[in-house]
Every structure is written in structure tokens, then in C-alpha cells.
Amino acid sequence: AQSVTQLGSHVSVSEGALVLLRCNYSSSVPPYLFWYVQYPNQGLQLLLKYTSAATLVKGINGFEAEFKKSETSFHLTKPSAHMSDAAEYFCAVTPSNQAGTALIFGKGTTLSVSS
Amino acid sequence: DAGVTQSPTHLIKTRGQQVTLRCSPKSGHDTVSWYQQALGQGPQFIFQYYEEEERQRGNFPDRFSGHQFPNYSSELNVNALLLGDSALYLCASTFGQGDQPQHFGDGTRLSIL
């Protein structure tokens, strides 16, 4: 069975500071991993995905994530936070041998950015 | 290129009633999934439809049912509504069973009184 744990339900950073949102996964088969962002009263927007190619994945809006199999982690980073990055972030996993099927989400991390 | 569209945006119902939510997938997509997102939680998978059949189902009771039409659009039906069914219901679409990610609509906010 697959599961996702997002460490830290709330992360606060200053504008211009490094953003680090943590995600650990559990999967019995090689996983596909995703980060989604959700702004208030909106659906989920895909930031980036890992599908067994390069372990360092670059996404939209300057975000990137690194797949570390030995640590079962897929942490999301951004070198310099902008006020517009304030939102809810979700890490999700799906088994690669059933890609396109159910996404298993973490509980989410709220990112606050102060000026 | 229209993305995933859902209707209605908001809905208020009372306990015991029935509700139907609708979803049109992104152009070119043939697979539709439904998720329930309770306040402050991550989305939880309800079920997925492909070729007009339910392909996969999450841990939701039979009160939750769905349908996919030949044009790939989909409906989510919930019977005998409970207060705990209050949530944001998200529809996501993708193409086939490859490594293409799921694209989400903005959801339907369902409130049960």
C-alpha cells in the first residue's frame, strides 16, 4: 500500500528565503510522485512530477524536488520565496505500475510568506 | 484549451437528500477521477472512470456512485446525505494509464445542513 507523510502542517518563511516542504512516501513498488499547489477556493495545480527519469525534477514557478530512494523522500524546494507562493501544498503518490489511477495525498502543508 | 470544468460551484443540501455533481474533462482526456477534500485535509480518492466503467474505487460507501458518458464527461451522485459529506469535491482527468498527471478542476463546494 502507498502512503504519504508531509512533515509540518504549517511552514512560515520570509520573502526571499529558502522554501523547503518535506514529503516522505511509502510504496511497495516504484512510485510516481507529484507536488500540487492549491490556492484558496481553487482546485489543485500541478507543480511537478517524478516518473522515474531524472531524480531532480524542475517544475513551474521556480520549484524543484529531488527523489531520494534511500530516504523515501521527495522534498520540495524553492531558492527564494515570493509572496505569491503562499498557498497549500500537497504531495501525492501513485504506483508506477498503475499510473493514472488513484492518487494518494498527504495532509498538506500551508506555506505562509511574510514581507 | 478548456481545462477541467465542474458544476455547480457551490451547493447546499439537507441531510437525507441526494445530489449530483458534474465534470467535463480536459480536452483530449478520457479518464475521470473524483476526490473528496474535507476542510483542512488532503483529497481522498472516491473512484475513477475509464471507458464508461468504474475502474478503481476508494474506501467510500455505496451511497457514492458515478457515471461516465460517451463524451467522457462524468457525474458523481451521493444519496442519503450526511453532515459528514460536507466537503470540496474535486474532479480530475487524465489520458489513459500512462505517466500523464491528473489535472484538477476547481471543485464543487457541498454543504450539508
What's the topology here?
The complex is a heterodimer of chains A (115) and B (113).
Chain A: E1 3-7, E2 10-14, E3 19-26, E4 31-38, E5 44-50, E6 56-58, E7 64-68, E8 73-78, E9 87-95, E10 104-105, E11 109-114
Parallel strand pairs in A: 2-11
Antiparallel strand pairs in A: 1-3, 3-8, 4-5, 4-9, 6-7, 7-8, 9-10, 9-11
Chain B: E1 5-7, E2 10-13, E3 19-24, E4 31-37, E5 44-50, E6 53-57, E7 64-68, E8 74-78, E9 87-94, E10 103-104, E11 108-112
Parallel strand pairs in B: 2-11
Antiparallel strand pairs in B: 1-3, 3-8, 4-5, 4-9, 5-6, 7-8, 9-10, 9-11
Give a brief outline of the structure:
The complex is a heterodimer of chains A (115) and B (113). Chain A is mainly beta.
Structure report:
The complex is a heterodimer of chains A (115) and B (113). Chain A is mainly beta. Chain A has no helices and eleven strands. In chain A, strands 2, 4, 5, 9, 10 and 11 form a six-stranded mixed beta sheet that branches. A five-stranded antiparallel beta sheet of chain A has the order 1-3-8-7-6, with no helix packed on it. In chain A, strand 9 and strand 10 (104-105) form a beta hairpin. Chain A is globular and about 45 Å long. The termini of chain A are far apart. Chain B has 113 residues and is mainly beta. Chain B is 0% helix and 50% strand. Chain B has strands at 5-7, 10-13, 19-24, 31-37, 44-50, 53-57, 64-68, 74-78, 87-94, 103-104, 108-112. In chain B, a hairpin with a 5-residue loop joins strand 7 (64-68) and strand 8 (74-78). The chains are: A mainly beta (115), B mainly beta (113).
